[in-house]
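Notes to self after the Tuesday call (sharing in case useful).
The group wants a holo model before anyone commits to mutagenesis around the pocket. I volunteered. Ligand is nicotinamide-adenine-dinucleotide. Logging inputs and output together so the record is complete.
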Amino acid sequence: MTETTQQLTAVVTGAASIRGIGRATARRLASDGWAVAIVDLDGDAAAAAAAELAEEFGVPALGLGADVTDEASVDAAVSRIEAELPPVGGLANIAGITSPVPFFETTLAEWNRVMAINATGTYLTTKRVAAGMVARGYGRIVNMSSVSAQRGGGVFGKVPYSAAKAAILGFTRALARELGPTGVTVNAVTPGVVDTDIRVGATNPELEAKLAADVPLGRQGTPQDIAALFAFLLSHDAGYITGATYDINGGSHIN
Ligand code: NAD
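Result:
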């Protein structure tokens, strides 16, 4: 994790859902020795996930309910994390939702909801957490974008989702430039289709099979595939990488 023996905390948003990428990332980070803070809309599931990690890996872990679109809610959660866990050295902004609504059927409310959770949530959480990182002169921030930002949808999410995930790429690059001199790195991850429950209620086995068939590696990604990349970018070893976008899509989008 770091060159020193000091244990650091990784904050992972959107890490409560059982089959989700955030949960897998929190698990991977705990297994790498991080103290882990899980921040999710579902506070009960976040607390249960944290208890599970503490039990399995013997690391400090805290699971808190918070809405990443609400500044006061984020502030309250991060204040507790800073008070109760080791210094925060990593932030994985993973909370997000998708939206398969065609453009002319989108409402302003839908646009705002998708932008708020994906883009504004990343902004609010980063702003609150990065202040401590800058003060300590060390930090790793990794933001969840999507191949939809690069391809213009074409997987599942449509215009608001692609726009929100593209906003995260610009956010990442500009913040990397600004925070570089402070010892804090900022990177983005752009997964292709991953087998989670994010599309639940809006998909079917035929669509899922088609999504996998479009991938040169012949399968959807797993949450563990993506968690491994987050773990690397959050690690001490990734210290010379900033402002980068990491594709992880089984070859479905090759630049
Ligand atoms: P998921 O639905 O399993 O997990 C999303 C998590 O975010 C849930 O635990 C949910 O409670 C939490 N969340 C939602 N709104 C929140 C809010 N306002 N405040 C705090 N937490 C909130 O989905 P997933 O597939 O694991 O997706 C995780 C991230 O990965 C998302 O940002 C998604 O856009 C991105 N992503 C997913 C895929 C994919 O195919 N699954 C591909 C590319 C990118």
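Two things stood out.
The mean pLDDT is 96.
DSSP finds eight helices and seven strands in the chain.
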